[in-house]
Design a protein that fits this description.
Strand content: 25-35%
Largest sheet: 10 strands, mixed
Shape: elongated
Amino acid sequence: MSRFATLRAAFAEGRRRPIRIVGASGQLGYGVPTAAFEAALARDPDMIGCDMGSLDIGPYYLGSGEMAVSRASARRDLRKVLLAARRLDIPLVIGSAGSAGAAPHLDGVLELIREIAAEDGLSFRLASIPADIDREACIAAIEAGGVRSLDGMPELSPETVRGVTHLVAQMGMEAFQRAFEAGADVIVAGRACDTGIFAAMPILLGFPEGLAIHLAKIVECASVCCVPGGRDPILATLDDEGFELESMNPDRAATPSSVAAHSLYEQSDPFSILEPAGRVDLSEVTYAALDARRTRAEGARFVPTDRYCIKLEGAAALGHRSILLAASADPSFIANTDEIAEGLEALVESLVCEGQEKDYRLIFRFYGKDGVRRPVVPHVEPGEIGVVVECLAPTEARATEVLRTAKQYLLHFGFPGRKSTAGNLAFPFTPPEIYAGRVYELTVFHLMDIAAPEEVFPVRVEEV
């Protein structure tokens, strides 16, 4: 009998107790500190959870189907958490598998898990939950008025849906709960709400939804909520009135202020956590220090919705990118960057577009001056700047051709105050142009109403 089944049976008989949940990694594949992880295992946890992905890394991985981490590092971390979970006979739950949670990401992680199990002689019940959304079903929802834009995105069209390379949605806790109900020892999900990884089991066991989701929103980032913040595993202890947080690295402290501040993480409203099935109201939450390193939180309340919706994510191929890396310490060059960029763009177009329409974009960034943001107040010109020129074009060959032309003319471009005609740029590499691969654009970032999550996110179970 699994740990979940054992706990459920005990709770049904009235033998309730707090449960202990380990947030092993804020993003699996970037390392799980061994000392802190072993300290967590020594506390006899009831579950290990790991977030493995995010859209924070941009649309490339969703569009390309590649992992953001290397296969070797993903395998290393998977082996560590899998062996630990099987050693303690507790559930291992992984969400947003393989970085972006689309079919190739989920399949790649499942392949690694099966490899590890075969090599280490492990046997367990494995559940996988794909997050890919049927395009025709999405288009039907658009036509029925069941899709809404997020964060200023344009209205979603059928053409946009058909143009993405992968279309996924963030599953809620219900999908994970069906996997627990199916007796899974290891659960691996495609794109998922981070909270579902950690809240599904406690809610099945009867713990308050608001508390479980609030806990989940914090521990999915491991010890980021601590001072100083870090990626070491964190231990959460949940009861019917609240939960306690403790980093497993003794050098990190979960304080009331640091834990409360985590409510700002990925949230436009620090008093509300939005979920497919509703929202968690944090307006009455209290945070109290248990000692110098531990904090207890109470008061989160779940407010269900009458309109179950999921967040769609999709990325479409935009073209190919080449970049030029250079620098300048010429005061006159630095003072005239806007004019240089404008003049160079016109010159390059006249040279590479003879007899054809312009089919590329040149983007200039001058780091140290306005590479991150345009200055809004008068400022002193820096002594040197980094120069990044980016070309987006339909093909690798075209992106490289345009950028090499831009490089040559930028090197010798005339500007007021120029004294040296031999070049006013320094290059850290040769060749200075670097092909940076295909470019993907986030074209789907919308909400879609659904009636039956079990039809959208099917649970597949296998014996490993």
